[in-house]
């Protein structure tokens, strides 16, 4: 079974969930990558997956079919379907997250009738609480709640903006706390803490990495492909990429970066962000794994373990000081067609 990793993977304390190209989800044991079972129900490409914080048994997934589905990972059964039909049709959903308290969901949408939406649900209710549609002008690519502050939400879009919200406020205008112009399409955002407050690490679709101080709404560092290539010891910057970032238990910020070539001479590394510098942290060595472009990763701050998944359909568990272990699967590719709406109407 091939894992469609454009949509990512998610981890809990003991499990790993991966999006598959046949619109299903596969569950694995985190420590062994042994497959537990599959869950089916979506009718279009799955675009995001998240465990409810603190739970191994509750998983949510978003899809272009316009639904967020909750799953019981013990039985493999869907327990609730969330959707938004306020425009008399479901909005295709492109990303999803659950807040730290495990009470609220947020999903981003494609552009629907000239608007890009952030839709919110109570995890116990199928219909939405409301939404935002004035802060982004193009498709949402990522939504991320703060790992401990349930009201703090960061969102990224192909419009090049990252917005930071306090969702405890009663209106979108009041909720919007900061707007960061990255000047490029946003791929992912990662919260991290420093002595001077909260920061975001932003990965762009141009394979660049930016760091932002949220207290000042200021970009503090920017690493282009050339800087990434130097950090991973590559000479051809055009084949280098950054997948995502993770924060360690010690507070370090690590970037998963690599390079691929047609000849199969790839590499994969963890880079540590030291102020305005990228420095090597770990070399991830496996000839079969490093030949594929890594599309998703999950990190355990408690153990330092990392799982990566790539275009080749291989999930790999990396442990500090140990040889990697992998699980390989194959089947058909995911569809790429996305439908957009035509009728414009404000829903909330």
From TrEMBL:
It comes from the Eukaryota. WD repeats lie at residues 39-81, 133-175. InterPro entries: WD40/YVTN_repeat-like_dom_sf, WD40_repeat_dom_sf, WD40_rpt, WDR89. Residues 335-348 have a biased composition (Basic residues). Pfam families: WD40. Coiled coil: none annotated. Keywords: Repeat, WD repeat. Transmembrane segments: none annotated. Residues 313-348 are annotated as: Disordered. PANTHER family: WD REPEAT-CONTAINING PROTEIN 89. This is WD repeat-containing protein 89. The lineage of its organism: Eukaryota, Metazoa, Ecdysozoa, Arthropoda, Crustacea. The gene is WDR89.
């Amino acid at each position: 079974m091939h894992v469609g990793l454009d949509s990512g993977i998610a981890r809990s304390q003991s499990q790993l969930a991966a999006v598959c190209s046949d619109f299903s989800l596969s569950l694995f044991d985190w420590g062994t990558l042994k497959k537990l079972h599959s869950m089916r129900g979506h009718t279009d490409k799955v675009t995001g997956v998240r465990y409810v914080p603190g739970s191994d048994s509750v998983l949510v997934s978003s899809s272009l079919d316009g639904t967020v589905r909750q799953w019981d990972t013990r039985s493999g059964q869907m327990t609730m379907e969330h959707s938004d039909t306020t425009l008399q049709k479901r909005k295709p959903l492109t990303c999803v997250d659950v807040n730290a308290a495990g009470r609220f969901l947020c999903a981003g949408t494609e552009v629907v009738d000239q608007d890009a939406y952030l839709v919110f649900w109570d995890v116990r209710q199928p219909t939405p609480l409301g939404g935002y549609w004035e802060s982004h002008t193009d498709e949402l690519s990522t939504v991320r709640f703060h790992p401990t502050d349930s009201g703090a939400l960061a969102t990224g879009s192909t419009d090049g903006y990252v917005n930071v919200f306090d969702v405890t406020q009663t209106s979108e205008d009041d909720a919007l706390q900061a707007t960061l112009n990255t000047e490029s399409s946003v791929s992912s955002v990662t919260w991290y803490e420093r002595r001077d407050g909260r920061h975001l690490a932003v990965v762009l679709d141009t394979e660049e990495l930016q760091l932002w101080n949220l207290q000042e709404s200021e970009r503090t560092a920017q690493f282009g492909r050339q800087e990434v290539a130097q950090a991973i010891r590559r000479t051809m910057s055009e084949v280098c990429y950054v997948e995502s970032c993770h924060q360690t238990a010690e507070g370090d910020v690590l970037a998963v970066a690599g390079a691929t070539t047609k000849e199969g001479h790839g590499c994969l590394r963890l880079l540590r962000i030291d102020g305005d510098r990228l420095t090597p942290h770990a070399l991830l060595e496996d000839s079969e794994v490093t030949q594929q472009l890594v599309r998703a990763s999950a990190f355990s701050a408690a153990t330092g373990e990392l799982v990566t998944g790539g275009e080749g359909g291989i999930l790999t568990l990396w442990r500090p000081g140990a040889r990697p272990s992998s699980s390989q699967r194959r089947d058909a590719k995911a569809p790429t067609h996305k439908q957009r709406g035509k009728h414009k109407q404000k829903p909330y």
